[in-house]
Amino acid sequence: MEDDASLVQRTVGGDPAAFGDLYDRYAGMIRAVCFDTTHDLNAAQDLAQEVFLRAYSTLPKLRAVDRFGPWLFAIARHVCQEWRRKKKRDRHQFTADPPEVDEAADQMTSDSLSDLRLAMTQLPERERLALHLLYLQEHPANFARSVMGLSSSAFYKVVARARERLAKLLSSNQEIIP
Length: 178
Known about the structure:
Order of helices and strands: HHHHHHHHH
Structural class: mainly alpha
Largest sheet: none
Mean pLDDT: 82
CATH class of the largest domain: Mainly Alpha
């Protein structure tokens, strides 16, 4: 598997297929980060597309090509912040209806999985991202820690903290608020 740095260099050199490989590698994780913000599958997909458009257009300015993953996640966080600000300013916001849920996914989701997803929304962003990368996207720990820009020990501390918080949230009888 080709590393991020060489794919970035090939993309900047004019090979669009290289950016396609970067997209395939990171699209699921970026959509997960966006879904954590929006709680809407369609909005998350739109935001993810915006993230990749911005990344592609500013890729030649990326100095540390080996830090593509953390740079892409920073763009995703920025796009999500913009979305939240825009959402707050939207005066035609409908809040009475719950967020849209894919029917097939809803049928497959058990109560415990729903509780887990709700509990994950209560975690700090760094912990949520670590769990997404390691467990939900099933990436190797070395890849996940490099994307987050953390050392091995720091990454495992973040994962341990996230698991402890999730255990407390799931074991408490308090209602989890999305």
